[in-house]
Amino acid sequence: MFSKQIRSCLILILFLFLATPVNAQDMSEYYTVKHPDEFTIDWAGFYKTNTKATAKVRREYPHHLNLAYGPNPKQALDLYLPKGEIFAAPVFLFLHGGGFREGDRAQYGSIAQPFVKNGVITAVASYRLTEDGFHYPAQPEDVKNAIKWIYENIAEYGGKTDSIFVGGHSAGAILSADVGVDRVWMTAMDIPKKAFKGIIPISGPYDMRKKGRPGEQSSYAPTAELQAQASPILHINDPVPSALVAVGSLEKYQESSIAFANGLKAADVDAYYLLMDDEDHDDTALSLANEESELFKRTIRMILAVD
User: The CATH number of the domain where 137 resides is what?
Assistant: First the structure.
């Protein structure tokens, strides 16, 4: 017979095991965490902060984890819901960063807190990574399938099927831009274009032909032809009606962000360029989870303005 103390310990261990997200990527294995000397930002601290904040959101708000939109473990999303009765709520899909080589939905549930607090259903998706051998166009294809899952299933959770917004940080910014500049893919997937209302790309380069951080560009889009295909700024053909393009003043993506915002405006998109003072690459991601930040305030205003 086990003693009460041993039984209590076993129950706690089992609880922690069950509470750990299935197939969550081990952040201790991330390139940025294993090679901190190559970066000026403390990415290990960033991930720990987000993971802790994610746990808090999960304690406080209803949620459904590991909802599959494809067969690969990375092809899944976590859904966070406002408290109380939900009816025809708009939906925000967030795509994490990590240079296409790292990152997981398990570390970004923190993003959901201010959105669900303000009545917006929030989906945080993972997608296949280059570290696992997946390259362009696998990642934008995953995002399209995540949107399709949302369109087909979100009504069951109280969501509005034709009020979907997609945002992302860094690599996720590129992906949100990619699926938002030309909606021709929506027709092929039987999704009405009116369902996709806007994009919020944050801290990303939008021309993949230009050199980025070492290893990222060549891994995501390995050839010159693929780099051109993977550049959202080159394919603004049938864009979403609204966009918020944000970047930190301490980042190197300002020129790219301005050019992308201007390209969207030229295509009659209601696009706004937001420069966030004294913010670096990690700060801008954290700002989206901060209800008091200008980034969040402008994002929620854009989402709630849609009927």
Answer: 3.40.50.1820
